[in-house]
Specification:
It contains 5 helices and 14 strands. The chain is an alpha+beta fold. The chain has a single domain, classed as Endonuclease/exonuclease/phosphatase (Deoxyribonuclease I, Chain A). Strands 3-4-2-1-14-13 form a 6-stranded mixed β-sheet. A hairpin with a 2-residue loop joins strand 6 and strand 7. The longest helix has 16 residues. It binds one DNA strand through loops.
DNA sequence: ATGGCTACGGAGCGTAGA
């Protein structure tokens, strides 16, 4: 079973990329972030045509998360956050969740403290999945380690001490970062960031102790980041034996 | 040089992304 997590930076602007992803990899589950569209305007039929059932929580212009699955979706729940930043469901015999952690804008600004509080609350919320087979994918907007950000000694937004401490709390609560050595997942649109490999590893899959044994392998889908009109994030994909 | 690029909303350019 293949599971993808992908910050699309507008699903409506990424339909061609979605098509390539679906045809090239046929993942059973796709977790989306930053769909940036209200639910009634979500391109539901386009995605259904590739064989997916869909669960969405959107809002106007910003945020927005979704779960696409070739298997039935049950127990759909997006109550954790008021903003459209989180959705979970039971599908294919396991729980999956898609999360879009706030960006934080700049260290020590109000949005930064909102991000830290969001992470703290989220780690607490995840305790409900401690004993489940559960795969969490998303855009965490944090590079957990120095090697996750291309700039030596960088400690700005996504690489600050408090953000890294929050992610360490997530690990300490039993969630392993399964693609820790897979490389960068985000490159700025500016200054030919991708071509120069000026990247950040912001997108991650986390699995609890009970789920880790079914993990087979994972990688960053660089070929999707190379397409025309790409998202600034590459999808990440993992395969599980389940 | 506090920009650079892209998408959104909505019809200018401001806001957000990270």
């Amino acid at each position: 079973m293949k599971i993808v997590s992908w910050n699309v930076n507008s699903i409506r602007a990424r339909l061609e990329s979605f098509k390539v992803l679906a045809e090239r990899y046929s993942p059973e589950v796709i977790l989306l972030q930053e769909t940036r569209v209200e639910d009634h305007l979500f391109p539901r039929e386009f995605i259904e045509d590739y064989g997916y059932n869909i669960a969405i929580k959107g809002q106007k212009a910003r945020n927005g998360v979704a779960i696409c699955s070739k298997l039935p979706l049950e127990e759909i729940n997006s109550d954790f956050a008021e903003e459209a930043r989180y959705i979970e469901a039971f599908t294919g015999g396991l729980f999956v969740a898609s999360v879009y952690i706030p960006n934080g804008q700049e260290v020590d600004c109000p949005q930064y403290f909102y991000k830290l509080k969001f992470l703290e609350n989220f780690i607490e919320y995840l305790k409900k999945f401690k004993e489940e087979i559960f795969i969490l994918g998303g855009d965490f907007n944090v590079g957990p380690y120095p090697q996750d950000i291309y700039i030596d000694g960088y400690d700005g937004i996504a690489g600050s001490l408090k953000e890294r401490e929050a992610i360490a709390m997530l690990r300490e609560s039993g969630f392993k970062d399964m693609l820790e050595t897979a490389g960068y997942t985000w490159w700025s649109y500016r200054q030919r960031g991708f071509k120069k490999d000026n990247g950040f590893r912001l997108d991650q899959f986390y699995m609890n102790k009970k789920t880790q044994p079914i993990f087979k392998e994972g990688k960053v889908l660089l070929d999707i980041r190379e397409l025309e009109r790409p998202s600034d994030h590459a999808p990440i994909m993992c395969e599980i034996i389940y």
